[in-house]
Amino acid sequence: MTMTHADESTSEAYVRDRMVEDAAPPSSSVGAIGWMRANLFSSIPNTILTLLGIYIVYLVVPPLIEFTLVNAVWEGEDRTACAQAHGACWPYVEAYFWTFIYGRYPDPERWRVNLTFFLFAIGLVPLLVPQMPFKREGLIYMLAFFPVAALILLTGGDFTYAGFFLPMPEGELRFWIEFLLVAAAVTGGIYLLTREAGGNAKGTALSILAGFGVLAALFFVASIDFGLVEVETPLWGGLLVTLVIAVTGIAASLPIGIALALGRRSNLPIVRLISVIFIEFWRGVPLITVLFMSSVMLPLFLPEGITFDKLLRALIGVALFASAYMAEVVRGGLQAIGKGQYEGAMALGLRYWQMMSKIILPQALTLVIPGIVNTFIGLFKDTTLVLIIGLFDLLGIIQSSYTDPNWASPTQSHTGYLVAALIFWVFCFSMSRYSIYMERRLDTGHKR
């Protein structure tokens, strides 16, 4: 007998109606441990460098904390409080703090320095914050109003002008005649060069004349007597001098450097030759030599009876020195711009200055933000060299305080240099962080 069994197959299909919840990542890949594995101990070389860094921190940080905090002296009236101390002498810093800021600037007139700092801050901060409006008005304020206001507040104003080279009696008449002659000569020279280059010679000449007109207005305002007490620059010192030199050098070196970079790439042989000579000369001379020459040698070449303020000579020397380095930084950015950008601008019918101001320079300056800020930081630190010509900047005024027998102690110099290092670090680190912020905002780097 044959039995036939029907094959009964049962098919069960499972369809998930919701996604499986994400499993928690391994504890070794998240949190502090995960960050350390990814950034500090991701490989044997990184592990070695991390351990070396930890060892250096162990050697430096604990002694620094002991000197500045644990073993420091916090109260005292004179050197006896710090004579036997093994840490920082903070009463000495407290006693000299305002001297570190103002130098020997007269006490009753220090409100003028504070007002200058305030005017500088309210003009600079809106320019640094991208979301703030009225950028053009802020730039005009910083380039036109603030320099004149700062000059009048810090010096007292009421300047008198005598002139330089015309064979006529000294006085304001001779100065203004010489001013008109210089304005005419500079405008005419630039007009001829612009016409030879095929640019808008008339528009450029009018712009130069407008600049001289603004300069004449500034001279006139500076000659007005505002009733302020005159404070000579030898009484300036401390952080005031450091900021005056640094800000002036930074503000002057960037436009001069841009002009020199464009001149070095110019098709006009005379412009290119002058730019190359200027850049190579100033780059080939140490800044300390420039300061010494401006202070000692320059007066020997001036006509009899004509002198320049020592601080003014230092400002000119620092600005020209920094502009040569700035020119090479900007030139690197110009060379990084592809040829197609130039060809596209010329295809649109743009003139040379239109092409540079609207197409080329915005891209070039964006690319070299790190180099520009690096030059600014180096310039800020190089202001300490003015001590060699008798200008007491922040470091110089700190060193001069060591001669005070009332605060002479074994740790006085260490404390003073620590304060100077901290102040310089705050300013330089702030410039560095702002540079990084602008790089990220403008997306100048290459994405990975």
TrEMBL record:
Gene3D superfamilies, A to Z: MetI-like (1.10.3720.10)
GO CC field: ATP-binding cassette (ABC) transporter complex
Major place of residence: membrane
Location in the cell: Cell inner membrane; Cell membrane
Domain of life of the native organism: Bacteria
Keywords (A to Z) from UniProt: Cell membrane, Membrane, Transmembrane, Transmembrane helix, Transport
Spans traversing the lipid bilayer: 46-65, 111-129, 141-161, 173-193, 205-229, 235-263, 284-302, 359-377, 384-402, 414-432
SUPFAM superfamilies assigned: MetI-like
MF terms (GO), sorted A to Z: transmembrane transporter activity
GO terms of biological process kind: amino acid transport
Residues in ABC transmembrane type-1 domain copies: 239-435
Protein topology in the membrane: Multi-pass membrane protein
Family indicated by similarity: Belongs to the binding-protein-dependent transport system permease family. HisMQ subfamily.
Protein name per its UniProtKB record: Amino acid ABC transporter permease
Source organism: Rhodobium orientis
